[in-house]
Amino acid sequence: MNAERLHAIVTALQKEMVATQTHAQLEALCNSLQQVLQQNNHPQYQDNLATNLKKIYSSLSVCPSDNFSPAWRQLLAEMGGTPFFGLSLKAAIEEVFQRNQITPAVALKELQQLSQRVNTFQQALDQILAAFKQFKIGNEKLEPGECEIGMLIPRDAVGNNLNGFAQELKELIFVLNTFSEVATGTPDELSIKTISSSDLTVYLNAHAPFAACLSVAIERIVALYKQLLEIKKIRGELLKQGVPDKQTAGH
Predict the structure, then answer these.
(1) Which residue pairs, CB below 8 angstroms and at least 24 apart, start in 150-159?
(2) Burial 131-158 (b: 16+ CB within 10 A, else e)
(3) Which residue of 19, 137, 190, 238 sits 20 to 30 Å from the alpha carbon of 85, by its own alpha carbon?
(4) How is residue 204 annotated by DSSP?
């Protein structure tokens, strides 16, 4: 990833953590669970635990990071931050309580460790943002009305070879220009916005109609492929149940 794009995603993640008060809510959850452990028969402490649990589940269910683009989701995973945001963190908390229903002391220990990891990650975000500011590294972001198209070409797919990379780009140029002509009537300039050499990702500037046409096409293709997989799964289950092959074959 390039520094400007890293700056953009770090800014978004730090803003989300501040808005949801992730670490503070985890600390409150740990404190209320500890109170229940110390005075299990106190109904107020049990109510506090339930309230704090409901509160953090609610805030983690509507996080912007869960709607990041696939490229940003990949960057988040590479940073090791996926477990600390949105539905992933919510699932981790749920899993702690489910596994330790009869051992709440163990649940408390695991939640405290999770809270510490979240805090460490947030501190790292704060530090890197301060460094970006110090070294005057810009924040790559789209202005209203701007669009971009990102293309990731895995190194393994081209054998880490320049010629293979060039051939992939040539094919992508053909595909993108086809969509551009459908959307706007003319081939797009395909002007380069940024290039990431670490993962062979190219980001192009794009007009809104072109970007919209391409995104809708990809969405439809993914939806059709998902339906195909579901049909194959159902057909496999029917075969396991003894339904004759000829009765499950397509017509």
Answers:
(1) 150/69, 150/71, 150/201, 150/202, 150/203, 150/204, 151/201, 151/202, 151/203, 151/204, 152/71, 152/74, 152/199, 152/200, 152/201, 153/200, 153/201, 153/202, 154/199, 154/200, 155/199, 155/200, 158/200
(2) ebeeeeeebbeeeeeebebbeebeeeeb
(3) 137
(4) E
pLDDT of residue 243: 84
Locate 15 and state its tokens.
Answer: 């803003």
Q: Which residues are paired to 204 by β-bridges? A: 149, 192
Secondary structure (DSSP) of 140-153? --PPTT-EEEEEE-
CA distance 23 to 114: 9
List all residues 6 or more positions away from 75 whose beta carbon is below 8 Å from its beta carbon. 1, 5, 6, 9
pLDDT single digits (tens) 2-51 = 888 899 999 999 999 999 999 999 999 999 999 999 987 788 999 999 99
64 vs 29: CA distance, rounded Å? 22
Structure tokens at 45: 């402490």
Q: Which residue has the higher pLDDT, 58 or 39?
A: 58
- Residue range 75-93: mean pLDDT, rounded: 96
For 46, the 3-state DSSP assignment is helix
Name residue, tokens 């924040």. Answer: 139
Query: What is the Rg, in whole angstroms, of the alpha carbon atoms belonging to the chain?
Result: 24
C-beta separation of 45 from 67 below 8 A = no
How many residues are there in the chain? Answer: 251
* Residue with the two structure tokens 């500011």: 133
